[in-house]
Specification:
Elements (H helix, E strand, L loop, with lengths): L7 E7 H11 L5 H11 L1 E11 L9 H9 L3 E6 L1 E4 L5 E4 L3 H11 L5 E5 L6 H9 L3 E6 L10 H6 L2 E4 L4 H4 L1
């Protein structure tokens, strides 16, 4: 991974994807340490955290984390989940934040040299490609060490750099 101290970077964290990755790797992130880690690597402009919230769930298990992050240097982007019935008649909850994350990346590009995407979701491959066409570098943080791997092969191939989340364990847990 190549960061220059003068690089203007932003973190874009797909909260649900990161949560699934650290659960699979069996460790917890110290979000303050993670912010400090990237602040030492480059000029950190912003750290975004994206998650959907179940409004009627009180207390929400994610609410405590979201509130802490909001008070400790992260920009929180949330939306309410939507409930629907799938084709087999089962109740499902939907709360995808991909569009919000993609829009924020595109809006921030003029102010950044490098983006750091915390997600293994292959849907972000085109976002990375568009970011690179604008002359920006992209680092993806996810894991291939979990069973199954959480990083989509096409996302890893498209990124300029890949950081194995498990390799950061001692630095951010």
């Amino acid at each position: 991974m190549t960061f220059n101290l003068n690089d203007k970077i932003a973190l874009f964290i797909d909260g649900a994807n990161l949560h699934a990755s650290i659960k699979a790797l069996e460790f917890e992130i110290d979000y303050k340490r993670m912010l400090e880690y990237f602040e030492k690597k480059a000029n950190l402009i912003r750290a975004f955290y994206y998650t959907a919230l179940i409004e009627e769930q009180d207390p929400s298990p994610i609410r405590k984390l979201v509130d802490w992050l909001d008070y400790n240097g992260y920009t929180i982007v949330t939306k309410s989940t939507k409930e629907f019935i799938d084709e087999s008649g089962r109740r499902r909850i939907k709360g995808n934040m991909d569009v919000e994350l993609a829009i924020d990346v595109m809006e921030m590009l003029d102010h950044l040299d490098h983006i750091v995407l915390f997600s293994g979701d292959g849907d972000f491959r085109r976002l990375i490609e568009a970011t690179q066409r604008k002359g920006k570098r992209v680092t993806v943080v996810s894991t291939a060490n979990s069973k199954p791997p959480m990083i989509a092969d096409e996302l890893r191939r498209q990124s300029d750099y890949f950081i194995e989340l498990d390799d950061l364990r001692n630095l951010i847990s």
